[in-house]
Amino acid sequence: MRKLDGIVAKGLYVYVLAMGLFHIYTAVFGTFEAYLQRAIHLTWVLPMCFVLYPFAAGRKRQAIETSVPWFDWIFAALSALPGIYIMLNYDEIMMRMQGVDDLTTAQLVLGTLLIILLLEATRRIVGLPLVIVAVFFTVYTYYCDAPFLPQLLRGVPTEFQRLVEGMYLTDEGIFSSSLGVSATFVMIFLIFGGFLEKSGVGEYFMEFAQAFTGTAPGGPAKIAVLSSALFGSISGSAVANVYGTGSFTIPLMKRIGYKPFFAGAVEAVASTGGQIMPPVMGAGAFVMAALLGVPFNTIMIAAVLPALLYYGTVLLMVHLTALRDGLKGLPADELPSIRSVMKKLYMMSPIVLLVYMLLAGYTPMYGAIAGISLAWAVSLLNPGKRMGPKEILQAIHDGSENIPLICTACASAGLVIGSVALSGIGFKFVGAVLALSGGIPFLALILIAIVSLILGMGLPTTSAYILGAALGVPALAKIGIMPLAAHLFVFYYAIISNITPPVALAAYAAASIAGSPPNRTGFAACRLGILAFIVPFAFCYDPGLLLKSTFMGNIISIVSGVAAMAGLGFAITGFTKRRLSLPERLGFAAFGLLALHGSLPIALGSTSAVIGLFLLLRPRADTPEVR
User: Fold this and answer.
1) Could you point out which of 61, 242, 424, 611 has its C-alpha 20 to 30 Å from the C-alpha of 229?
2) Is 54:2 a contact under the CB 8 Å cutoff?
3) Helices 160-168 and 105-125: crossing angle, nearest 10°?
4) Residue 126 pLDDT > 60, yes or no?
5) DSSP line for 517-555
6) Three-state SS at 9
């Protein structure tokens, strides 16, 4: 990102602030019609991409750029024209008949211009992988009857005019529901995040984690897990979370004796899991609610148990590792006291209010506005963090400035969504999955998991999820998987691509802080996050893991989930009351996996086996006492 100064920086500050205020206004008083709201949003964001982000993305010299070259000013101006045309001719566009009325020359030129400039903005901000995927699907839609394509992938091609029409003048392409999520929920939650930071609530998350876990064995690792769970749900970005909390927690973990690669892995896993932890779960969960057509609290409730099992497993493994290796916590005098932290427990109130409003059925936008208001009120109780008019405007600006990444990713993902709708490749993909899996659900799940992991390599979670959902969810629905479980399945695998080598962005970010080998950090992160690879398969067979079964079914799923968490944690660390032998580790691993089996007798029997095996173990004389 360019470091601008002078009149350009001041003008851009006002521009971004105005954008934030507009979105706050629509959150409070109601948004415009969906297509128009999305067009306004993209028109506001796209020029920012060319002003703030250099053409030579990724080069070292971009860090010192303090001015905008003339060609980027031209790109910025041109990128606003397609949206301005929509605003000025909105009624006419709404009255035209898709597939019947011809495009005017202006519409054809502006639509083509928007696609090209959107792809260039995406290249600069998100990276080349998403551009390649979007271009592939768009070109396929035009050439899908090419003779070199396999018969299974051939279809009826779309004329260039109809392709531009579908992408530009409808809400099924660039301006699809994925961009709608950016234009409404994500924007307001980014501003909420700005208020949490300025009011001191974000800082309090770290203090809370330090006070309650810092002195325990492996305390810094537990600080990383707890603080990242709290912070990551709001930030919605695994890499941002790694840099935000890992710069503090990773050096502390290394200080008490954790190996650098393990310290980086803990932070990567904890930060990645923030996107599956309610209440916010990043931008992807809002997209999921829109695609499923369900209230957001439905997604939030379903995600609670898998997220708790994920973090519970990570906490258990860092605790067992600390006990196994004799690692101590931090001295109490270096940490905030529990008493001082509890005195400021009111700092959690914005998050508590948000959770209450979401569970009560209020829209996420109203919940975020209420959280913003309470975050400001909380700041007034802390002299060092008191938010006056200047700080309020700065919080709105800082939150809004982070929108280009998500906005361009969602808009480019819309090119894929539009291509799937126009070309019918989604149906062909369903047929291919069913053919390759032979109609066996488990094999189909494995295929979709691989596709989602590949799509997630190098892509933001939201984009990876949207692409995976467009292709994979119809195939899972065809084999009888519950729609909510199918979407969460794809969502999980899009997220854990952040810790899965060879392209594990969160693990690599953590490795850069820890000074450890990236791939070794990534593989260690995979071991710590093992439950995230397994639980999605389990909840596709057991709705109780999503709290969608009967009351007793939900209770059994909770108990068996905890048994699986314990069994896998013991097996991977090789320690409980003492170091475990290989047969004992294999026993815990087998029973832990079977505890998640959809069959009630097998799940309960395996749960009992995990408990029984643990109780039968006896500490050896050479094992340090476990407290």
Assistant:
1) 611
2) yes
3) 70
4) yes
5) -HHHHHHHHHHHTHHHHHHHHHHHH-GGGGT-S-HHHHH
6) helix
Q: Where are the domains of the chain?
A: 1-125, 552-627
User: How remote is the C-alpha of 56 from its chain's centroid?
Assistant: 27
Q: Which residues pair with 366 in a beta bridge?
A: none
Range among 56-60, 145-149, 231-235, 527-531 rated most confident:
527-531
Question: In angstroms, rounded to a whole number, what is the distance separating the alpha carbons of residues 602 and 568?
Answer: 17
Nearest 5°: the CA angle 313, 316, 320 is 140
**Could you count the other beta carbons within 10 Å of the beta carbon of residue 615?**
9
3-state class of 313 per DSSP?
helix
| 399 within 8 A of 190, measured Cβ to Cβ | yes
- How far is residue 205's CA from residue 212's CA, in Å, rounded to a whole number? 11
Sign, CA dihedral 196-198-201-204, equals positive
* CA gap 454, 442 in Å, rounded: 19
460: number of CA atoms within 13 Å, CB side? 27
CA proximity to 173, closest of 484, 422, 546, 457: 422
Q: Is the pTM for the entire model greater than 0.90?
A: no
Handedness of CA 51, 55, 60, 65 (dihedral sign): negative
Spatial contact of 167 and 107, defined as CB atoms under 8 Å apart: no
- Cα separation, 330 vs 248, in Å, equals 13
Rounded to 5 degrees, what angle do the CA atoms 268, 134, 102 make? Answer: 150
Distance between CA 193 and CA 511 in Å, rounded?
A: 26
| 268 contacts 507 by C-beta, under 8 angstroms | yes
Q: Which two tokens stand for residue 354?
A: 């948000």
CA angle at 306 for the pair 303 and 311, rounded to the nearest 5°: 115
Residue type, 447: L
Q: Which two tokens stand for residue 356?
A: 């209450």
**Pairwise CA distance, residues 496 & 533, whole Å:** 8
pLDDT tens digit sequence for 233-245: 666 667 777 877 7
Cα 367 to Cα 267: distance, rounded to the nearest angstrom: 29
* 523 Cβ neighbours under 8 A, 6+ residues apart: 501
For residue range 281-339, what is the model confidence (pLDDT) as tens digits? 877 888 898 889 899 889 999 999 999 999 999 999 989 998 888 888 888 888 888 89
